[in-house]
Amino acid sequence: MEFSKTIFITLLIFSCFVTIIVSIYTQQISNYLNLKDKPDFKRKLHKKNVPLTGSIPLILILIFTLLLNIFFEIITDIDYLLILISSLCIYFIGFIDDKFGLTPIKKISLISLVAIVTIVSSKDLIVSKFYISFYDAFFYIDYFAIFFTVLCLLTLTNSFNLIDGINGLATGVLIIWLLSYIFMFSNSFNSSELNGFNFFIILLSINL
To answer: How many CB atoms within 10 Å of residue 78?
Structure first.
């Protein structure tokens, strides 16, 4: 089914509504889910408990988009769908880590498992070559492609965990990335090829 204006407006209204509700009831949601970043006066220097609910609106938008896709097939590219599903899985790994605590080895192992399943499901997601402008040449890594792709995902995930300790930094970086995506693929947004994945990216930019 073609991505229609009705679905566009539905997702937009839902995303704005969820963002407003979660923002208003952040403390209550945090208490109910017991999602709090408690100070330890060593690595965590804040004096009060900090609610860990900032990503809830984004993940609810992702889930709602996937549910709509079941009925309306708004995401036609299997690679985009795999990216969204794997993102959801990685989010739940982070949720479990925030709520119950996971050892670094367990967390890395689970994220690696998600990455491997995702890239094995679609060879188009595997980083098999990269370009170095200094040499003006492509370098192929066929035998280490899967390992390199998983390593890239782990590095990206860990980098966000590191910068997330400073208020607004991770959100700011993500906004820059998302706006860059919108700019690079603006032709798709302005044409009939606008699909569920592209609009999901727009929603993230708006709600961040």
So the answer is: 12
Contact 104, 161 (CB under 8 A): no
Instruction: Provide the whole-model pTM.
Output: 0.74
Specify the length of the chain in residues.
208
- Calculate what percentage of the chain has a pLDDT beyond 70: 74
DSSP codes, 171-203: HHHHHHHHHHHHHHTHHHHTSTT--HHHHHHHH
Host H or E run for residue 37: strand 36-37
Distance, in Å, from the CA atom of 93 to the CA atom of 71, rounded to the nearest integer, reads 27
Residue boundaries of the structural domains of the chain: 1-74, 102-207
Q: Categorise residue 48: left if φ over 0, alpha if ψ from -120 to 50, beta otherwise.
A: beta
- Does residue 204 register a pLDDT over 60? no
Taking only the tens place, the pLDDT of each residue in 24-36 is: 888 888 888 887 7
